[in-house]
Amino acid sequence: MKVLLLKDVYKLGRAGDVKKVADGYGRNYLLPQGLAVLATPGALKQTEKIRSSAAVTRNQLNQELSGVSEQLENMVLTFAAKAGETGKLYGSITPQMVASSIQEKIGYEADRRQLDMQPIRVLGEHKVRVRLTLDLIPTILVIVHREGEAVEIPSEAQPEAEQIAEPEPSNEPDAEVAAEQS
Questions:
Q1: Alpha helices of 19-125 — where are they, by DSSP H?
Q2: What domains sit in the chain, N to C, each tagged with a CATH number?
Q3: What pLDDT, in 10s, does the model give residues 110-165?
Q4: pTM of this prediction?
Q5: 57-77 burial string, b = 16+ CB within 10 Å, else e?
Q6: Residues 12 and 19 sit within 8 Å (Cβ to Cβ)
Q7: Which of 28, 64, 72, 152 has a Cα-to-Cα distance from 83 of 20 to 30 A?
């Protein structure tokens, strides 16, 4: 099925492009969401108008998010996690955890779907790309370290670094329970 894109679609194309897509993708997602219309001769006459209005919208959005992009570019997020001897985590650092850390640090409400990452399951440094728009894709550094150990932050990002850790429930008994047992 050939469709004319009305809006920019990630990994497909920009507004005004004519693309051939699978029938189900077009029928079940692109058309109902208002992202595209069928590529009929009447619709194809509208391509230049769609492209020009989309370019204006895209430029305006890029200008609004350029400040956020600059803040994110050199951001370093650190997470403390429990890990085994080999460096494999007991659990994972999820995109949602990274998105909420971004929101806590700079106030920008990033959606987990904007992050190009899989759940992190090993200790170390990981680069994560944040898709703000099709043109603005800053990279942040996520450092995962073992709980209780000091974290080594790269020198170029040292002033930006801030400790962000998930609170873990302690395994220590309450003082009252300890007093009753003695």
A1: 23-25, 31-33, 41-44, 47-73, 95-106
A2: 2-45 (3.40.5.10), 68-163 (3.10.430.100)
A3: 888 889 999 999 999 999 999 988 888 999 999 999 987 777 776 555 444 444 44
A4: 0.70
A5: ebeebeeebeebbebbeebbb
A6: yes
A7: 72
